[in-house]
Amino acid sequence: MDRFMWVTTISLIKGEFEVIQKHNVRIYDGDNRTNFDCGTLRLTSHQLIWDDQLQDRTISLGLNLVQKTEEVIAGFNRSAKIILYLQSKPTSQEPGPKISSQFNYIRLSFRAGGQSEYYAALCNQLSRKRWITQVTNQRQATRPSGRHMGIVGIERKIEQKQKETQSTISQAFSDLNALMDKAKEMVAIADRVAKKIEEKKGQLSDDETVQFKSYLLSMGINDPVTREEHGYGNKYHEELAKQLATFLKSLIEKSDGLMTLTDVYCMYNRARGIELVSPEDVFIACKLFESLKLPLRLREFDSGVLAVQSESHSVEVIVEKITKIIKSKGCITAEELSPLVKTSITVAKEGLSAAENLGMVCRDDSVEGLRFYLNRFMKDP
Amino acid sequence: MRRRGVGGVAAINKSKLAKAKFAEKGTEIAETQVSQMSQQLEEFRTKLSDFAAKHRNEIRKNPQFRNHFQQMCARIGVDPLASSKGFWAELLNVGDFYYELGVQVIEVCMATRPRNGGIIPLEELRVRLTKAHGKTREDVTVDDLSRAIKKLSTLGNGFKVIAVGSQRLVQSVPVELSMDNTAVLQSAMDTGYASIKTLCDEFQWPTDRARRSLEQLIKEGMVWIDSQNASEDLYWFPGLFNNEK
Amino acid sequence: MTTAKQLANFQWPWQYDFPPFFTIQPNVETQTKQIQAWCELVLDYQKHIKSYAIDVQESLSSPLFHNAKIKRKLPIDGVYLVLNALKDKGLLEWQDKKMSRALLMWRSAEEWAKLIFNWAERSGMTNTVCTLYELQLGNDVKKEEFYEIETWVLKRALRVLEKKGKAVMFDIQPNDNDNSGGVKFLS
For the CA atoms of chain B, what is the radius of gyration? Predict the structure, then answer.
């Protein structure tokens, strides 16, 4: 993981071109989880660029540092992965997210699939070694603001515009640096505690776990391992879950017992007006519905769409309704269905998919669109 | 009366008991650090509070400073926008700005989806938002939008920012756009349309591959076909059609 | 024939300059949106040039279905799709079996009925008699939207009111273009 470099502006050198990109790729430092959890991995002829899908950060790895690759097929409880064995870090390399690593390999996990295609493309590019003929080329930034968006660069730009406020800006930047130094320490503490917790699995008291999760929440630190081991949220999210349940009670009946999480986020925040909640807060709160014994559930469809479902209006009820409608109409598209079941097109699409999964309807997929018909291969209900 | 001995069997037993207790609780090490944590947390909160008092405005008014702040946070492993309960959102007020922006982004994307099938240039999104909310909001940059959109993806709606060449598009539907689909988008960026011939010329694709990719896009409602062009059919993206009224 | 002058300040919808708008779309959902947009355009256009009739052949080369600037024309089967969609909405009546001419209301009879009755209530014209002529061209209605309304449309609107028990017509001639006769609005 220490062979990666920070990227401020993605730039391709002369002769470099993009080959393939995939979303939802996770990076492991050797065997360890990192918080480089969800990003778009772009393969070019010269490098791998990982762009965080959730935050402002990008890292890159030169293909010249890859000695060997391996593909690991998915196993029981393990996702498929690509392993990259790396050469040691060149001394002249630009700084990256990690100063040193105990591992000389990284692993890539393709959470949204497409690994084989990617692996083939990667092997292809590695075999061509296009970077060898272009060692002397410098990377030119595509934006005129220059390669180093460091403090000095920004300061100079602003200086030209706001001479009178220069001293304020300088102060702001140096104060920011000091703050970040402190924040870095806080992250390091969290890392150490997280490791200890991992080592002493199952022996941490509830109290301590709660405290630690609260720490992570306050600092905005995402530790995927803690999240997976000890679940989501804390008191704040539990309260939010209860508030959401009350707020959604009548709304969800109006839309037939199913509402997308996106709609929940919008409506709830609009109603709040100020002190809005983050998308992640809403997500975590809804995940807690079941454990808090509230009459709502968070449901994930195959397409990745998340929706809140009223316990009494299970998707099965919607499927029954849809089947009745198709019986009377012969066939239907999601757009035609949505006003009939009083939901958004997204939810109508999911309803049709669910009906298909239950074998009640089948699809006719053409350039004309996606139509659904009653499944006559099944016994008539 | 039993003797209360300090040494001897009693002592050995006591230390054995202590060791056992230690192993049982095994958490003792973690416990110490956990209590240290709350102290550190308070210290940090104070520091952040001071910083906020002095520079909260700077973050609100200055997009470049805001950018820098966000990038620094991301690099040290901290997400100031993760939760409205986090210190950052609470003390710096960055939360409301981005969460509100998120709501507005969703609204614009929903409103324009019937027209563009769920693809809109990031810059067009910014223009529409500025028009809709005009003077009541501060300068919103495309970077701010990108940040807000990244957070929205948590809601499982397919929202994402796609880089196409040197430009950025916002996708707001949970559809998997293949590399080929993205290439078609790239081909259409300047003119608003693509054609089988230009795709085959530009990317050295066989005709079939070009046609398949275009048909996928027609199916998703992102592309309309135009069969009145002299030489060949054209495939237009209403999302890229630069004819804003 | 519509002149450029008539259309000088007409607000064309964004689709009008979008070339594929003139190709009937294969994707069913897209086509539905397309036809809907065409219906709205036809109604707005007709309203703007104050025309209640449409001749299919003529319309093909009118600015409505022919955008010379981008060199696109809606083909005849497209035109029929749009016009029949309007018929399904109750806004269009074919005048002949061949479907070469149609009468078009850019407001439904129901909507006209509402407008006229509202005016009647506002102006205290309930329980008094109005001639059809007065409703079309009288001084009292100069500022109303139904000013200069065509006789056949007016008659249909008044019939709607009659059915609802809100008006009584008398001395009405069967000819659609004959505007003799009157109506009494009931409160």
Answer: 29
